[in-house]
Design goal:
Blueprint (H helix, E strand, L loop, with lengths): L1 H20 L3 H12 L2 E9 L2 H4 L4 E9 L2 E9 L9 E5 L28 H4 L1 E5 L23 E8 H12 L10 E5 L19 H4 L1 E6 L1 E2 L1
Antiparallel strand pairs: 1-2, 1-8, 1-9, 2-3, 3-6, 4-5, 4-7, 7-8
Length: 221
């Protein structure tokens, strides 16, 4: 009887010790909440080439990362209405931090316009497209969003961070993927806009399509 009592007491003591040393449900919940806390990258877009657009283009980009999911929300106003506008993240292949071009210093040929090619010194190259399939890395496509009759432009997408970073690495060799190393550009003016012949663009793409009209530098909140 005495041995049975001692054994029972020992079992109870072990259970109490295990309960006190092990993580509580509250600890697990708090740890899960920390792991699920989203990372939010944001920027306000500023106008470029306003002498061509005749309007103060502005907008916001927010990229919310939670787990492997990145939700992209781009909203822009005062764009050329009723037309498709290209929008991308630009960056450097070595993974260094990109910036929006300094004006007027970026206007290397002094034609009064900062064209796509002139942004490369500051922003790198076009990388992540904001269209129906960003992971494809396809730049030339007809699936970018269109501005409405008032020049308002809205784009949203949800992508896998792992798939996106792998695609950027495979396409451009970027190993240190981080959204705050990129800048966002919105492009495009009315095709009837008069641009000097000195304005450069991508091969076989009119300069009116690729002309930068707004830029913003992503930062982690």
């Amino acid at each position: 009887m005495k041995k049975r009592l001692q054994f029972t007491v020992a079992i109870i003591a072990l259970l109490i010790l295990t309960a006190s040393c092990g993580p509580s449900r509250k600890d697990h919940n708090e740890k899960a909440a920390v792991q699920d806390e989203p990372m939010v990258y944001t920027t306000e877009l500023n106008s470029l080439n306003q002498n061509i657009t005749d309007q103060q283009v502005n907008g916001t980009l927010t990229i919310t990362v939670q787990g492997d999911s990145a939700t992209i929300e781009l909203n822009v106003s005062s764009l050329a209405p009723n037309m498709m506008h290209l929008a991308h993240l630009h960056g450097f292949e070595d993974g260094s931090e990109a910036s929006c071009p300094a004006v007027p210093e970026a206007d290397a040929n002094e034609d009064g316009i900062v064209d796509l090619i002139e942004t490369r010194e500051y922003s790198g190259i076009t990388m992540i497209p904001f269209h129906d399939n960003p992971v494809s890395m396809e730049i030339k496509t007809e699936t970018y969003s269109q501005a409405d009759a008032q020049g308002n432009y809205n784009y949203s997408a949800i992508v896998s961070v792992e798939e996106l970073s792998s695609a950027v690495q495979e396409e451009y060799g970027v190993e240190d993927f981080s959204f705050d190393n990129f800048v966002v550009y919105v492009h495009g003016v009315d095709q009837q806009a008069t641009l000097p012949e000195s304005v450069q663009s991508l091969p076989d793409v009119p300069a009116t399509v690729t002309l930068p009209v707004a830029c913003g530098e992503l930062e982690l909140e």
